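Quick one: structure tokens for this chain, please?
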Amino acid sequence: MKISELKLQNFRGYKEFVVNFNPKFNLIIGENGSGKTALLEALTVAMGSFFLGIRNTNARSIYKKDIHIANYDYSEEYLFPVRVEASGIVLENNVNWARELNGTKNRTTTTEAEELKRIGKRIEAKVREGEQENLPLLTYYATGRLFDEARNMNGKEKSETIKAPIASRFRAYSRCLEAKSTHKDFQKWFRGKELARIQRGQTETSLDVVKKAIVDNIPNCKNIFFEFDPDKPQGLKIELQDGRVLPFNMLSDGTRNFFAIVADIAFKCVTLNPHLQENALTETKGIVLIDELDLHLHPEWQRKIVHVLKDTFPDIQFIVTTHSPFIIQETGEEELIVLKENAVNQVTSGINLSIEDIAEELQEVDNPQWSKSRQEMFEVASKYYKAVKEGTDTAEMKAELDEAMKPFSLDTAFYAIIEQEKIIQEYKKNKQ
């Protein structure tokens, strides 16, 4: 499944909006409040419509908080219909579909998503009959992906689920569109696979595939394993290249973020399509949404993660957001989307731009080579220098300059220029 075009009407901050997507990688940038997260949320509605045809999964509806609010002189009003329309390829079919909400007490419509629902029903029936059909990966990683843990079901249903889980391929769709972390699901699966390997003494291909994806791509990672030794703290652990062994929870936020994304995508690929064996990561199709890809990552890792996602999961469509110029710099042709004032600008690429060019031209940062303090000092200094030349400088202006120059006390060149200019002006006065 891949989305080629998305149209929005009255969805959150968007009154009317259209955007096209690259089938491989898409990086969305824009100021805070430009609608990056809202666009990802709209995409969860669009791609979640696939679940209308699959039992025991949750299709994302249009919520009350998604309704666009119009502000008038004397009132605020909800605008309807709230509409999310998409087109793309779903299991080799070209499909157009839409969902609408027409009132605060209405339900999200499904009439215009019937074709997508039928495709979901067909694939579900085949999989439940044991046919080896490829299932698309659909998942959303929000900014709370590390710490905001998704809750399981409550009460009797929860206890029955824990006691009697089944190895359904569809379990990879559980809570996949929630803005929550599901990393505990991965840790539970990893522990079970390690135990199964010990018990049977056999190769676990899915486990090997996931471990390879992690070890090959996580910086400084030598090995990953689950600690069963009763004399040591048990749990998921990483062996680093320098020989240290650290529990997952003791890793830096950046490492855990990098780890969690790669591990979870790989885990979902082998769960959805176990019949693909060692090719599960390279042949699984689908859509992955990631909000703030640069979250907690060092700039060097920010540059690395774009290529990790593209190379490790080559048939996945990634749609991600960022504020990082380092990630922007790694985008290829037609992979960069700039949001600006409820409009969109499809930029060819950021690969030929310097960090300063990106900050200034794409992110509209004035004079990115200078700190804000230095910019303020420059403005005060320019005003004072002009006053000196005109003979209108005052003690108050000198004091203001001294205060602005404090962080740059080693920069004596400007004071030398000022003193020289004063001598020149004094000489001119005396001569006259």
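The mean pLDDT is 85.
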